[in-house]
Amino acid sequence: MIRTFTATDACGNTATAQQKITVQDKKAPVFVNVPNMTIECDDAINLPEPNVSDNCDQHVTLTHREFHSRTV
Fold first, then answer.
1. Is residue 71 part of a domain?
2. Residue 39 has what pLDDT?
3. Would you say the C-alpha torsion 9, 12, 13, 14 has a positive or negative sign?
4. Which of 22, 33, 28, 20 is nearest to 56 (CA)?
5. What is this structure's pTM?
6. What are the tens digits of pLDDT across the range 49-58?
7. Which end of the chain is more exposed for a tag (fewer CB within 10 A), N or C?
8. Residue 67 has pLDDT above 80, yes or no
């Protein structure tokens, strides 16, 4: 982003200066909740997606991989 300032004196003389503003996103998204759940082995897996927020992006892409293990 470029911001331009203009100063004008009583005689109408002007001067301008530009300020360059660089926006950086150095903070990773944050998970708000990732609940652990226990289900029966014959239950359908229908679990809610966790909530995620980011300080610069309102539309964070959420993906997941599943690792299946059995507890005996």
1. no
2. 82
3. positive
4. 28
5. 0.52
6. 888 999 998 8
7. C
8. no
